Amino acid sequence: MIRSLITRSGLVCLIFASLSLLLPAAGKIPESKTSVDFETQIAPLIVEHCIRCHKPGNEKGELSLNSLQSLKENGFLTPGKPAESYLLEVIQVDPETGKAEMPKGAKPLSKEEVALFSRWIKQGAPWPEKLKLQEKSKADLTWWSLQPLAKNNHPATSDVPESWQKHPIDRFIAAKLQEKNLQPSPRASKRTLIRRATYNLTGLPPTPEEVAAFENDASPDAYEKLIDRLLASPRYGEQWGRHWLDVVRFGESNGFERNVIIDNAWPFRDYVIKSFNDDKPFDRMVIEHLAGDVVGKGDPSVEVGTTFLVCGPYDNVGNQDPVQKAQIRANTIDDMIRTTGEAFLGLTVGCSRCHNHKFDPVMQQDYYSLYATFSGVFHGSRVIASKEAQQKRNAQLQPLNARKAELTKEKSKTESAIQARAEKKAADYEKPWVREPVKRTGVEDTFKPVNVKFVRLTSLGLDTSPWAKTGYRVDEFEVWTDEKTPRNVALATNGGIAKGANSRTAGDFAGAYDVSLTIDGKIGACWIAGSPELTIEFAQPETINKIVFSSDRSGAAMSNYKATFLSEYKLEVSSDGKTWREVASSQDRKPVNTRHRRKRFFILEATPDENKRLSKINADIARTDRELAAIPPLPAWWVGNHKQVNGPFHIFVGGNPQRKGDSVVPASMSTLSNVTKAYELKADAPQGERRLALARWLVAKENPLTPRVLANRLWHYHFGTGIVSTPSDFGYMGTRPTHPELLDWLAVQIQENGWRLKDIQKQIMLSETYQQASTFREEAARIDSDSRFLWRFPPRRLTGEEIRDTLLSVSGKLDLKMGGPGFRLYEYLQDNVATYVPRETFGPDTYRRAVYHQNARAARIDLLTDFDCPDNAFAASKRNATTTPLQALTLMNHQFTLDLSQFLAERLQQEAGTDKIDQQIDRAFRLLYARPPIAQEQQAARALIAANGLPAFCRAMINSNELIYLD
After folding, report:
1. Distance between CA 539 and CA 536 in Å, rounded?
2. How confident is the model at residue 63, as a pLDDT?
3. DSSP assignment, residue 937?
4. Over the stretch 855-899, which tens digit does the pLDDT of each residue have?
5. Helix or strand or coil: residue 497?
6. If you write DSSP's letter for every residue of 478-490 in order, what string do you get?
7. pLDDT, position 834
8. Contact at 8 Å (CB) between 640 and 433?
9. What's the rounded mean pLDDT across residues 635-660?
10. Backbone dihedral angles phi then psi of residue 272, each to the nearest 5 degrees
11. Of 100, 136, 107, 112, nearest in space to 17 by CA
12. Nearest to 379 by CA among 290, 334, 315, 322
């Protein structure tokens, strides 16, 4: 029976022999009389050959081999009785085939190893009670990136220019160049340096005047002064803030199928830009990102940092199924864990969600300790204001709220008196209510036949709100003739015309809620009323005697949809559309609920004096409401909401929230246990304290990963590729550092400089390495084709944002306004889901820097998308640089570039003179390329302008590689 069970369950797929082991490799097979030691002899064999497929969360054949209990429960092993242990049968080699059932697809165990298992079982299968076997990652705690930072590791160099001996960075680079038999390149020209540095630090081209001033400055510190000026520019924060927003997957829509816009996330973007401009210590930014609400409570400039946790995609459909709801919540926290691990530690922590990381020493317990840490974070908006601002507003609101409370009390007292009198007359009032209440699935009214051309339905109250008259739904409205075979003369196909205001429109689905749906002969789709009246005009006068209408004819509307319907109504008819008479109403129907009963009693019982008094009270309340509304609300920003969620917290076996494993608490990751001081909190520790503890652990002085990862990001954005070319993966599947000693030196510099970045960036840019020419040398490229060892400065294409900002800048149209809500390069259409349609015309509102674009997920933005701006559904630690036909087509034919070609032509005429062609050409080259034209270019430009005009010349200049590539 056991064999049959295992066969059906598919007990196969054992671990590849190449996997690294959790436990020591098996030693020499002992003599038969020697006691078998489980930990050193049996456990390594199980880990090597079995545990990958047979462990909790990946239980092939419903069998886990991480504990003795599982083997015994499944009938695989009977301690002391090898002959009754099926385990031995599946691992033994068949003499005829030379194969064993297990491990499947791998080399069978040797006879000695099988014998070892047999003796172990015979000796009672001893297995330490608390020992659970688990697959080990490829890398362990000795992995290079997990070691302490190396200090004072300056290399000695020779056979390089003397200028390369002065700067620590150059000495590191020179040493590696010598090792690879490479020589550095000479220094770049001043024109190249100012263009390179300006784009690098600001994302914009230098002006012709800035280029001329730099080239004419013969002082020895001219280049250093240039760097200082650029670092001090407000444009610096816009450029480097954009880099960081990529890393933290900042987006302004929630993604998933609804993907609705988030209009109040922009303060985080401004916070990031300001933080870089202010050279805020990066360790402080980390703390504010994870726990700004704790360390800066009441300070909006600090609390806004926690948007980091909730600026990723999240599913807000609101699935009410408990299993799916738990899974969605797990996915939401997973996004926070992954982003935190990759952004700060350069570790793919998310790979430990379902099992221990297969490549890096990140345990599943580490993942769920972080899960417990972030368990109190929820997506959403929250009022962010200083204590003073809140007190000031409360002082304004208090007297108005007190007045409204007094008016409301007086109103309630009067209405209660009316209701009390009415209840005494209830029997008389209720006598006319003989028909069934209104039902959403259908209302039918019959009356004496009348010959008319118009029918009008008028709302007198809704089932969800007795006094409201609009917002009800009608899925079908029928008017039937008084004939042997009645006809629905309201139908559009019979010539009927429906009139009524729509209260809701869907930009991405014209007519989705249109009044015409009431007479289309179909149920399901509804008109949502924007007016109390629905009027139907027939093709010709008809004799009618019945009207039927509904909001949910099939009764299939979802519970959260409710198909709001009329509770009170009247039906009128007319021959000319001017004079109307009532033929039916709801007055003889029973009320749909208690609130409507009270409304009817009020109308019947209230005296003229009471109505007059209540009208005055309502007017006073309305005036008070207007005064309250006039007080500006405190800002609500997308910073997340924080709630106390206590344990117990558990590992989710296989990542499934329904399968709870061992308990965990908020704690530091064991990955860095050899080099950092660990922390562990109670499961019921304050949720803010959990996040703050994690943040402080991330930036602790002994933590080597955070400064290493940060240093590498700086290098990446200065040279196009990091010392580790996978900026968010410093693990086994990432690349190894080309200059590990330099990486550590940079990381130490960051720490010793108080985590401020501008100084280390200046050091990088003042190095000879950075100032090299980018000239290609074939002999060097044969050794290092990607310039990873920096024998030249690696040229790069501008990013999509840099290209767009450059076109605006050179055409004189760039609006340098900073901060505030972003602009849109799409038309936003939103109903239940959102649609983003790229704009085809562009005005001054779109001429701001691209970093201020409202960055929605899955929204195609033409030039930006074509030039590889990432979709921020995921973090983008580095940009792609593809070459596609769409890029050329966009630069050549898109309306945006056509407009800017015209603007550039107008600028050239204004600055160089209308009829001075040579000066226009010279100015264009200096604006776009930071250099004058050579003779052949001047001649070709003249010919182009003569044949096609100045805008065509500007269009050609915009489409050149020289504009969008940086040497």
Report:
1. 10
2. 67
3. H
4. 999 888 889 999 999 988 889 999 988 999 999 999 999 999 999
5. strand
6. EEEESSSS--BTT
7. 86
8. no
9. 94
10. -65, -45
11. 107
12. 315
